[in-house]
């Protein structure tokens, strides 16, 4: 009797040991390449946040010692293309006014700074850019953005345009919360104390109302 051998035509699935080793080597190489990049990004983020807290204390001290008013200006242009968000900027202005802006004055101030006519751009309260101090401010690293700025004297947070945080010569400071957004849902809040100018770094997005209640 002829015996017929049954041929198993079922295809084998899964990885061989060599294939697994190759895949592991590729993943390991990718991690090795990405680690220095991620390490540099994290270092830049930590440095930026630390320098922001230091800048707030310095502004508070200088305002008291020099008898002038400083204000931190944070510019957040409107986003028209999510793939190419506009550059955000910060600078320091110095003036002699001992009164912070009302909500209406804040709106007028934003409109004034958009003027193209130099005469119309001139600040009636005498504030001018402090170029020396502004250079000490850290640059916003790639991947970080100002999400919004909450200020006690304003009913709504500033999400577009310019936010003004005042440091008065009497030692008083605008109570504020600067919200910073990073990649992969990272978020930080810099909470500025109104009496000391001390800036507390919080490793999450925390509303100003919640900070004041603590």
Concise structural overview:
The chain is α+β, with helices and mostly antiparallel strands. The protein has helices spanning 17-66, 103-113, 118-121, 131-135, 208-213; strands spanning 69-76, 89-95, 128-129, 145-151, 161-167, 176-181, 187-192, 199-202.
Q: What is the CA-atom radius of gyration, in angstroms?
A: 27 Å
DSSP strand tally: 8
Overall tally of structural domains: 1
Total helix count? 5
Taken as a percent bin, the fraction of beta residues is 15-25%
Q: Tell me, briefly, the overall form.
A: elongated
Can you put this structure into words, describing what you see?
- It is a single chain.
- With 214 residues, the protein is α+β, with helices and mostly antiparallel strands.
- The chain has one domain: minor pseudopilin epsh fold (3-Layer(bab) Sandwich), CATH 3.55.40.
- Helices cover 36% and strands 22% of the residues.
- It contains five helices and eight strands, in the order αββααβαβββββα.
- It has helices spanning 17-66, 103-113, 118-121, 131-135, 208-213, and strands at residues 69-76, 89-95, 128-129, 145-151, 161-167, 176-181, 187-192, 199-202.
- Strands 3-2-1-5 form a four-stranded antiparallel sheet. A four-stranded antiparallel sheet has the order 4-6-7-8, with helices on one face.
- The longest helix has 50 residues, at 17-66.
- The protein is elongated, with a radius of gyration of 27 Å.
- It starts with 16 loop residues before the first helix and ends with a helix.
- Residues 34-40 have low confidence and may be disordered.
């Amino acid at each position: 009797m002829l015996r017929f051998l049954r041929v198993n035509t079922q295809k084998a699935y899964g990885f061989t040991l060599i294939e697994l080793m190759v895949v592991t080597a590729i993943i390991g190489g990718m991690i090795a390449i990405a680690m220095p990049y991620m390490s540099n990004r994290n270092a830049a983020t930590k440095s930026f946040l630390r320098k922001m807290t230091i800048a707030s204390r310095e502004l508070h001290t200088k305002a008291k010692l020099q008898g002038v008013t400083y204000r931190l200006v944070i510019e957040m242009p409107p986003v028209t293309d999510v793939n190419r968000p506009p550059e955000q900027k910060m600078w320091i202005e110095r003036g002699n006014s001992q009164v912070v802006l009302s909500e209406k004055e804040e709106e007028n101030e934003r409109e004034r700074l958009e003027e193209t006519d130099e005469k119309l751009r001139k600040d009636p309260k005498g504030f001018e850019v402090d170029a020396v101090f502004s250079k000490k401010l850290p640059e916003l690293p790639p991947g970080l953005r100002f999400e919004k700025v909450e200020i006690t004297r304003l009913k709504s947070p500033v999400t577009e345009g310019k936010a003004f945080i005042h440091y008065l010569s009497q030692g008083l400071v605008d109570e504020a919360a600067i919200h910073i957004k990073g990649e992969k849902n990272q978020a930080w809040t810099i909470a500025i104390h109104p009496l000391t100018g001390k800036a507390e770094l919080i490793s999450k997005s925390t509303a100003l109302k919640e900070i004041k209640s603590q």
